């Protein structure tokens, strides 16, 4: 998953979210989950609950 190894600041993450993107953090990576919203087995709310937050502990159970 080394598409773009640059450092993304919290302000940039906030900007992405303000632009309507569904962004979560996993293992220090910024993930855009827009395409996964309708496919998540737990439903969209499970993803929306973690937007802009570190979801590592939630995902790696």
TrEMBL record:
Residues 5-61 form the Cytochrome b5 heme-binding domain. Signal peptide: none annotated. It holds the Pfam family Cyt-b5. This is Cytochrome b5 heme-binding domain-containing protein. It comes from Glomerella acutata (Colletotrichum acutatum).
């Amino acid at each position: 998953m080394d598409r773009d190894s640059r450092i993304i600041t919290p302000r940039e993450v906030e900007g992405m979210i303000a632009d309507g993107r569904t962004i979560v953090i996993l293992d220090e990576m910024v993930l855009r989950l827009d395409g996964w919203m309708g496919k998540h087995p737990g439903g969209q709310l499970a993803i929306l609950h973690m937007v802009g937050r570190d979801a590592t502990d939630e995902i790696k159970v």
